[in-house]
Write a sequence for this structure.
């Protein structure tokens, strides 16, 4: 059937363009479109996720505009995303016939070579390309080298390549974003501080430079310097969402809860509120002891993400602090349904049951907590204290024996002493008490947490008093 050629009216809307194009395909006819019209078709099929049409449109565009690099680039990118490496390389071969020595094609070829394990060849190609590249292109080449090194897990070389990219073009966003991971992989925090200090000195309006500097400071515990760097990032770019999140985390880490709340409030002027923001504001109020306000924000977080186990847990924690025991139990159980591996969920539920004298349920959940995290001393102590409270001294001793296979803690030693003394085994208990006081005198108050009535145990008090006097000499 002979191929007919149509000229498209550029004033026609996108829907008409798509309908005409698909009608022509159905009839087996061809059309002559401008580059801009092909780009509009590509945009439509990308938005509507019609990959088959994308490649079809690109082939038509390349056949009509063989000297336009954008269509080759888009086709190769799609092929690489589909892991069609051979087809991508063939397309690049075709492209370089019409547009030789194009840097973008070389970068894509290096990516393809890396994907098929030809990393050394990719690096050689990139090194050769630097010889005839301008400054912007050199920055892209260094960035591509960093991707190759990342694939090879040579993270220090990745860091070096990204540093060169940013020295060549300090505003190279992809390099700045990847630098974050390179620093994390290599733990080169001091080197990152030195580099990004230099970068921001030379370019004080570089938001990503300030952000990466803040991240490096945060990683070495220099909180004030991290705050200052993140604040500069936000001043330079008031819509830098990640900088708000990181700065908020630093404020929380430093217990600067009021500042964290104000910062998150400010961020909501620019970004849609999300569950993470509401969760963090709720946490700040919780840490300040403002439970009603915390509950209000956790409720908003739960509305946005009803299946978030962390929000459910925090709601339970607030209810427990308000002695709203039934609500706390309900929230903790819902959290456990969503994640059955969290020892803190079981521990918190066990504590609520203990407070409400549901000892069987408390012991069950403390058992689940220690099974989930046997190296966490806290939950063994809760478990043992509950057993001591119910006067199950032999069982408590057995649990301590089990716990000491996983964790070596002076708290457990004092729990053992309490068990022995309460069970009437004074000689063993007092002997062990002398040892424990030598190891960590200050922790002896744990005895009274086990059973407050031990404060009246005269022989135990005598041993503690003697040791106290020895320490004062």
């Amino acid at each position: 059937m002979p191929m007919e050629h149509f000229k498209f009216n550029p004033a026609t809307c996108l829907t008409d363009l798509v309908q005409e194009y698909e009608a022509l395909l159905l009839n087996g006819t061809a059309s002559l479109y401008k580059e801009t019209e092909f780009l509009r078709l590509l945009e439509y099929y990308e938005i509507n996720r019609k990959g088959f049409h994308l490649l079809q449109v690109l082939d038509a565009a390349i056949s009509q505009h063989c000297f336009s690099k954008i269509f080759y680039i888009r086709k190769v990118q799609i092929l690489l995303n589909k892991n069609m490496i051979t087809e991508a390389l063939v397309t690049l071969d075709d492209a370089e016939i019409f547009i030789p020595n194009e840097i973008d094609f070389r970068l894509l070829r290096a990516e393809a070579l890396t994907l098929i394990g030809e990393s050394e060849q990719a690096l050689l190609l990139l090194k050769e390309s630097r010889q005839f590249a301008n400054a912007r292109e050199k920055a892209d080449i260094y960035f591509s080298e960093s991707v190759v090194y990342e694939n090879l897990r040579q993270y220090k070389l990745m860091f070096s390549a990204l540093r060169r990219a940013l020295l060549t073009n300090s505003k190279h966003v992809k390099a700045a974003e990847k630098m974050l991971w390179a620093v994390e992989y290599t733990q080169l925090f001091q080197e990152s501080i030195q580099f990004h200090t230099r970068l921001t000195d030379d370019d004080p309006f570089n938001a990503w430079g300030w952000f990466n500097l803040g991240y490096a400071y945060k990683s070495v515990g220099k909180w004030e310097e991290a705050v200052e760097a993140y604040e500069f990032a936000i001043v330079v770019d008031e819509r830098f969402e990640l900088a708000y999140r990181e700065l908020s985390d630093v404020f929380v880490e430093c217990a600067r809860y009021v500042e964290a709340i104000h910062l998150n409030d400010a961020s909501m002027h620019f970004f849609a509120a999300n569950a993470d923001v509401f969760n963090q504001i709720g946490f700040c109020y919780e840490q300040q002891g403002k439970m009603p306000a915390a509950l209000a924000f956790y409720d908003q977080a739960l509305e946005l993400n009803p299946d978030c186990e962390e929000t459910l847990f925090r709601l339970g924690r607030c209810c427990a602090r308000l002695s709203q025991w039934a609500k706390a139990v309900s929230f903790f159980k819902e959290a456990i349904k969503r994640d059955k591996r969290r020892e803190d969920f079981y521990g918190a539920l066990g504590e609520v049951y203990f407070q409400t004298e549901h000892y069987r349920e408390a012991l069950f959940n403390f058992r689940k907590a220690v099974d989930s995290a046997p190296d966490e001393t806290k939950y063994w102590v809760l478990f043992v204290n509950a057993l001591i409270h119910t006067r199950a001294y032999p069982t408590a001793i057995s649990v301590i024996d089990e716990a000491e296979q996983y964790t070596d803690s002076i708290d457990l030693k004092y729990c053992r002493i309490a068990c022995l003394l309460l069970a009437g085994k004074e000689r063993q208990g007092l002997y062990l008490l002398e040892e424990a006081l030598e190891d960590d005198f200050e922790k002896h108050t744990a005895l009274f947490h086990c059973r407050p009535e031990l404060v009246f145990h005269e022989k135990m008090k005598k041993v503690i008093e003697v040791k106290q006097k020895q320490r004062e000499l």
In short: The mean pLDDT is 91.
